[in-house]
């Protein structure tokens, strides 16, 4: 009864009783539909490849060699080898957007500051590489890139450092669980794709349904190579806490360097002298002669 003794009309009573169930059903349908859309577009939320190259290392005065190699599943990939002045080779796994030509400034600075050989390549679907990107595809691409670098007559196969930034860090971690590398350098790494989805889209509970995992947190404990993790406190894309979580899970020997004042994509520009010293010190700890 209402206050005052009035009776609730039977139709209204049934509406009051069933409305929460109707709303719950509607919300469930809307959520399911949204999840289905997100899953259908999953790769578009993760990979942002650009096909045209906007330059080459020669544009910055660097000698380089074009590289073409094929993955185990027959995908033709493209990359650049930039010779350095010491015996270390930097095997570079870039992030999820653009292509290798968008890293030219970074390549030039790394070459000048550390003097390492640099091999950078595009995953399938990026730049001049064939195919379409996927998680398992990037792992196959990493295998092919490592095999190609090891085959070069000017490369010491025992002195290859795997370097990954952002998405590339996850690719590098997976590779280092199966292949021995001289060292592993991870910059702005995330723990997993579901964790990133939870951090970036807390209002959209799709992370339990994502098929793409890149679960570095589950893998990093199996790595035997020395690890250096660099992460900016001000990273606006990958939470700093995720880099810390990976460091906590990594076995010794390991190092962590906190970058101050840089965002996600400009660490090499705004990280300051400390950033470059962290990289150089790590290489020296590995036994590398940087020739300076």
Q: How do you describe this structure in short?
A:
This protein has helices spanning 10-40, 42-46, 104-114, 135-151, 167-176, 193-200, 216-219, 240-249, 267-270, 272-286, and strands spanning 48-49, 65-70, 76-82, 89-93, 97-98, 117-121, 160-165, 183-187, 227-232, 254-259. With 292 residues, the protein is an alpha/beta fold. It has two domains: 10-40; 50-286, Rossmann fold, CATH 3.40.50.
What features would you describe in this structure?
This protein has 292 residues and is an alpha/beta fold. It folds into two domains: 10-40; 50-286, Rossmann fold (3-Layer(aba) Sandwich), CATH 3.40.50. Helix content is 39%, strand content 17%. It has ten helices and ten strands. The protein has helices at residues 10-40, 42-46, 104-114, 135-151, 167-176, 193-200, 216-219, 240-249, 267-270, 272-286, and strands at 48-49, 65-70, 76-82, 89-93, 97-98, 117-121, 160-165, 183-187, 227-232, 254-259. The protein has an eight-stranded mixed beta sheet, sandwiched between helices. Strands 1-5 form a two-stranded parallel sheet. Strand 7, helix 5 and strand 8 form a beta-alpha-beta unit. Helix 4 crosses helix 5 (167-176). It is globular.
